[in-house]
Write a structure and sequence with these properties.
With about 475 residues, the protein is α+β, with helices and mostly antiparallel strands. The protein folds into 2 domains: about 260 residues, Neutral Protease, domain 2 (Orthogonal Bundle); about 190 residues, no CATH class. Helix content is about 25%, strand content about 20%. Strands 13-9-11-14-21-16-19 form a 7-stranded mixed β-sheet, with no helix packed on it. Strands 1-2-3-5-4 form a 5-stranded mixed β-sheet, with helices on both faces. The longest helix is centred in the first third of the chain and has 19 residues. The chain is globular. About 40% of the residues are buried.
Length: about 475
């Protein structure tokens, strides 16, 4: 939410910050682009260390660096960032901290929405209950790029909802209201169309026309709420009608899903894939980029008790790959087959490796890395394979494992075979028999030590019931 500049104060007073209320806070430090203030009423003992002092400034500068690569904000002015208590945030921003809705950026609300931040436009002040608040920082970045009177809320909130990494903002392509309704709304409207539909339009324009063109459009977009004026200005600037763009941006692409999310610049470092241990550091690495490599898949090994990682499309078009552990509490190896898209994971720990772990031919498969500490009697590991295949057709996948001792394996797909060699169709395999009726898994199969080749045949029914392949490997005591 952005607060009013004087030209729009009458129109936006319902949700604007109170200009007469000063943001409380003690200057904790400053960096090249930010000054960080902290509310003296915050309980510092319970506040994350990653948001305070040099750590907090590092997190803000990391966000600036990432967004700067796409937006090219000018140098010279600093943004004042205020970390406030809920009560002081409500007073400064001028909203009800208990209003219902959906939390953004993992903010101070848990389940129910709390208005969790605002930005004062020309004042370049961001107030929030956490950092970095990507939506409000986007307002500040756009203020640097387009100083002066604000465009209508549909454009300002849409622009702030366009770019972010794991920001929790997005829109369903199957939800559509007439653009004439969306462009006259404000951020106070319960429908939140200025965020969802405004963000969807901004992302569509950035993807198809580029960020530079969108910034130029933002600078000259109308300040007065008037559907006819908006449509005329849109046609004059873009050379196409808002009706045509509105229809196109709600069309679900054949290779995508029906939910569109924020664009992540994905300019931060790529995840090391040489097996080097990775330490989670949200200040310098709020996400790790996953670079696709032709014919390669990615293996992510979480440490004992480590979190599974969502794999998010940088462009915000493809569905996030969301792994779900089936066996709970068992160390997991995630294996992601590449589809050529650049993705990112919000955080990482453990280790990663790249190789031909999931292939469409047996001979091409190399052994999937498994944690050596688990390959012993009494140990167990769960492998989750994210195939990223066309759910409407059958697909055959191959994996290779190297087992130091005999093991037992349970899987969840309808057709899986365990083979001692790639002579799969010449009697070297044993198929996993069907489990009891109603069970989600096949019968347990015992396999010997040594190389193990796994052939998985996925039919449309498998991809509907579970778009992941589970292999639970246990080494008997």
């Amino acid at each position: 939410m952005v607060t009013a500049r004087p030209a729009l104060l009458v129109l936006l007073v319902a949700f604007g910050c109170s200009r007469g209320t000063a943001a409380p806070g003690v200057l904790l430090g400053e960096s090249v682009h930010f000054r960080l203030y902290v509310d003296p009423d915050l309980d510092m003992a319970t506040f994350p260390a990653t948001m305070l002092g040099d750590n907090g400034l590092t997190a803000l500068e990391t966000d600036w660096t990432d967004k700067q690569a796409m937006l090219k904000m000018p140098e010279g002015r600093k943004i004042d960032y205020h970390l406030l208590t809920t009560n002081h945030l409500s007073a400064f921003c001028g909203f009800d901290a208990g209003s219902p809705g959906t939390a953004q950026d993992g903010g101070i609300g848990t389940g129910s929405y709390s208005e969790d931040g605002c930005e004062t436009g020309d004042g370049l002040q961001v107030a929030a209950g956490f950092l970095p608040h990507q939506h409000e920082l986007m307002h500040a970045y756009l203020s640097l790029l387009a100083p002066g009177p604000l465009p209508i809320p549909f454009v300002t909130e849409g622009g702030a909802s366009a770019i972010g990494c794991n920001a929790g903002e997005g829109a369903s392509l199957e939800y559509s209201v007439p653009w004439q309704k969306a462009v006259v709304e404000t951020a106070a409207d319960a429908s939140r169309d200025v965020y969802t539909e405004g963000g969807l339009l901004a992302r569509f324009l950035i993807r198809t026309q580029g960020a530079d063109a969108f910034v130029r459009y933002y600078r000259q977009a109308p300040e007065r709420i008037d559907p006819a004026l908006f449509a005329a200005n849109f046609l004059q600037f873009w050379g196409t009608s808002i009706d045509d763009v509105w229809s196109e941006m709600h069309t679900v692409p054949a290779d995508s899903n029906s939910f569109d999310t924020t664009i992540c610049p994905c300019t931060l470092p790529a995840l090391p894939t040489d097996g080097t241990p990775i330490t989670d550091d949200p200040d310098t690495h709020p996400y790790w980029r996953l670079d696709p490599a032709a014919g390669e898949s990615l293996s992510l090994m979480a440490p004992d008790g480590g979190q599974l990682q969502n794999l998010v499309d940088c462009q915000g078009v493809a569905a996030a790959v969301v792994p779900v552990s089936t066996f709970g509490g068992v160390p997991v190896v995630q294996v992601l087959a590449s589809d050529g898209r650049t993705r990112y994971i919000p955080s990482a720990s453990g280790a990663a490796a790249a190789g031909s772990y999931v292939t469409d031919s047996c001979a091409a498969a190399v052994p999937t890395p498994l944690p050596a500490s688990l390959l012993h009697a009494g140990g167990s590991v769960e492998i989750i394979v994210q195939p990223i295949v066309n759910p409407s057709s059958s697909t055959t996948l191959y994996l290779q494992l190297q087992l130091p001792i005999a093991a037992s394996i349970v899987s969840n797909v309808s057709t899986v075979e365990y083979c001692g060699s790639c002579a799969i169709d010449q009697g070297s395999c044993q198929a996993a028999p069907n489990a009891d009726a109603g069970s989600a898994f096949l019968e347990e199969v015992s396999v010997p030590a040594g190389p193990l080749y796994v052939r998985v045949i996925l039919g449309p029914e498998d991809m509907i019931s579970s778009p992941q392949v589970f292999l639970m490997i246990s080494f008997p005591s």
